[in-house]
Amino acid sequence: MRKLEGFFEVSYDSSRKLIRITTYGFWNLQVVEQFAQAIADLARVAEDGCDTLLNTCRTEIHTLEVNEALGRISYANKDAQPGRIAIVSPSMLLRMQTKRIQVPNVNYGYFDTEQEALEWLAAA
After folding, report:
1. Closest Cα partner for 73 from 41, 48, 105?
2. CA 2 to CA 97: how far, in whole Å?
3. Which of 4, 30, 7, 13 is nearest to 121 (CA)?
């Protein structure tokens, strides 16, 4: 597991082929840079086609600058072969920000609870 206290936790469960990402707080560009490194490290060990559970319930709305930097991370990984991506976010504003940086041809689901997201991922 890779963790930046107060900002994110990233882990990979190889037995479930599941990447778990939990985000917290209000990010700046330094946090995005550390998050990008954690994602790059994870991509080296995760299998192609694994699902992702992204929980943003404790995340603040990002500045445009941070959101654009997050979009560059998505674009840098656009050739990866991900499975489905379940995003837990009760905030419509955060969902809108996330949708702006989605990678084409990937199956995204948006959920209010982590349990709903896990059920959707398990129903494959």
Report:
1. 41
2. 24
3. 13
Distances in Å between the Cα of 90 and the Cα atoms of 28, 31, 55, 58, 105 are 22, 22, 10, 10, 24
- Residues near 40 by beta carbon (within 8 Å), at least 6 away in sequence: none
CA–CA distance, 100 with 89 (Å, rounded to integer): 15
What is the tens place of the pLDDT at every residue in 12-64? 999 999 999 999 999 999 999 999 999 989 988 998 889 999 999 888 878 88
User: Contact at 8 Å (CB) between 2 and 41?
Assistant: yes
Percentage with pLDDT > 90 across the chain: 49
H, E, C per residue of 38-84: HHHHHHHHCCCCCEEEEEEEEECCCCHHHHHHHHHHHHHCCCCCCCC
If one compares 63 and 116, the residue with the highest pLDDT of the two is: 116
Is residue 54 within 8 A of residue 88, CB to CB? The reply is: yes
The pTM of this model reads 0.85
